[in-house]
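hi! just following up on the protien thing from before. the input was this:
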Amino acid sequence: MNRIAAFAVALTASALLSACIFAPPISTQTDSAAVTRMSEQALATCGAGNVKEVNAKSFSCK
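and the predicted 3d structure came back as:
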């Protein structure tokens, strides 16, 4: 009986500790305000005519 109880406790503990954690997905919609802010930052950093690419999260210079 002792072995069965120990096995049940170990099985329960491992089941509880291996539970999945759910995190809501990050919004992937393109926010025009974010693109505008990033464009302004790109112009300030790279200079006019030197911006290669801009998106809502980053930019790159030529």
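The mean pLDDT is 81.
DSSP finds two helices and two strands in the chain.
cheers
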